[in-house]
Amino acid sequence: MSRTVIPWDALPAQLPVQTTAVVYLLLEHFDAPGLVWGVVGTLLALLWAGAMVRMWNQKAKPLPGYGE
What we know:
The chain has 68 residues and is mostly helical. Helices cover 53% and strands 9% of the residues. The protein is elongated, with a radius of gyration of 17 Å.
């Protein structure tokens, strides 16, 4: 099932890069134990996988008047 969306060049990036960086810095700052690293890493992997699936399952619809 795909949905119609605005083209990627008309939108800001939607990848969780900033979220990943902030979570990594927080884990480093608070010296998190290995179990916490594993749980948070798994959640981040799911977040990235969801972002990739969302990117691949949408089709671009040009905006009227955009790029002219």
